[in-house]
Design a protein that fits this description.
By secondary structure, the chain is an alpha/beta fold. The protein has a single domain, classed as Aldolase class I (TIM Barrel, Alpha-Beta Barrel). It has an 8-stranded parallel beta barrel with strand order 1-2-3-6-7-8-9-10, surrounded by 7 helices. α10 links the parallel β9 and β10. α9 crosses α10 and α10 runs parallel beside α12.
């Protein structure tokens, strides 16, 4: 048990407080630059800082957002008024988080598969991030569905790294958010996504037990069970909700404080509808189901902002609308009518 057990418990529970979710703003510099390029924003460091400032300081977002995941560059930057971003978040009652993996790299001897790196020097980096104000961390593993993949070796390598990362986080007094993402870019059916997600989560929690990670101080960030984008057979909202909940009940220990979903390339509205269907249909689950979206919260906001200071307020209003919709989805109270009213 970590020396920080009480602190970890308080942080983990605050991350999944009723009606609140987590905003992921931890895109790497190349990823954010691509998104800026797509809508004509110059990908400079100052534009990245200004955009993150818009997200961090949006008035009213602390009603719906419990935490924000920052990138290494961002945790060292400051708001327009000079307040360091982690302090600006804490001042608003929002927990600062930090992405600590160094990215998914090709897995040796396994073409088409990836393993996430970043364990070297992680203990020292976590100590620094804690000093900078981080309360929780995130590590993302990617599991690709394709011809003959994922292999057992790929799943095993990734969940082992996730478990070692989680142990180091708890040792440092930082809540680990563990993110095993089954990617949705293939032509697989929803049934195949279920099979891969189920196998990945079973192996993950076995590995966490092996590494003596305290389940009550872990937040799971996970994909929903949906068909691949190229699958000709689409799934209805209720089917996605049912298959996802079934998968989680079969694999995730009840001791976990909460589960948050990634959006995985779903449209902002569909990601919200899926979360809402789960919470409206299943009211007595062992853990709260919430959100930790990146693009599904940010995309409409970034498109509104366009890199112009005069559009900051309008962009923040668009962000707040998406945050509110997902907050309502956490209790099954969202409806599509809210989109037309925005």
């Amino acid at each position: 048990m970590s020396n920080f057990a009480n602190e970890l418990e308080l942080t983990a529970r605050a991350m999944v407080a009723a009606g609140k979710g987590i905003l992921a703003i931890d895109e790497s510099t190349p990823t954010l630059s691509k998104r800026f390029d797509a809508i004509g924003i110059e990908p400079t460091e100052e534009n990245r800082r200004a955009y993150r400032d818009l997200l961090i300081t949006a008035p009213g977002s602390n009603k719906f957002i419990s935490g924000m995941i920052l990138y290494d560059e961002t945790i060292r930057q400051s708001s327009n008024d000079g307040t360091p971003f982690p302090k600006a978040l804490i001042n608003r009652g929002i927990l600062p988080g930090i992405k600590v993996d160094t990215g998914a790299k090709d897995l040796a001897s396994h073409p088409g598969e990836k393993v996430t790196e970043g364990l070297d020097g992680l203990r020292e980096r976590l100590a620094e991030y804690r000093e900078l104000g981080a309360k929780f961390a995130k590590w993302r593993a990617v599991i690709t569905i394709g011809s003959g993949i994922p292999s057992t070796a790929c799943i095993s390598a990734n969940v082992h790294a996730l478990a070692r990362y989680a142990g180091l986080c708890q040792e440092a007094g930082i809540v680990p958010m563990i993110e095993p993402e089954v990617l949705m870019g293939s032509d697989n059916t929803i049934e195949h996504c279920y099979k891969v997600s189920n196998a990945t989560l079973k192996k993950l929690f076995n590995e966490l037990y092996e590494q003596d990670v305290a389940m009550e101080h872990v937040i799971l960030k996970v994909n929903m069970v949906i068909p691949g984008k190229q699958c000709p057979t689409k799934a209805g909202v209720q089917e996605v909700a049912d298959m996802t909940v079934r998968c989680l009940l079969n694999t995730v220990p009840a001791a976990l404080p909460g589960i948050v979903f990634l959006s995985g390339g779903q449209s902002p509205q569909l990601a919200t509808a899926h979360l809402n269907a789960m919470n409206s249909s299943y009211s007595k689950l062992p853990w709260p189901l919430s959100f930790s979206y990146g693009r599904a919260l940010q995309e409409p906001c970034m498109n509104t902002w366009q890199g112009k200071e005069s559009y900051v307020e309008a962009a923040q209003n668009v962000l707040l609308h998406r945050e509110k919709c997902n907050s309502l989805a956490c209790s099954g109270k969202y409806s599509e009518d809210m989109e037309s009213a925005a």
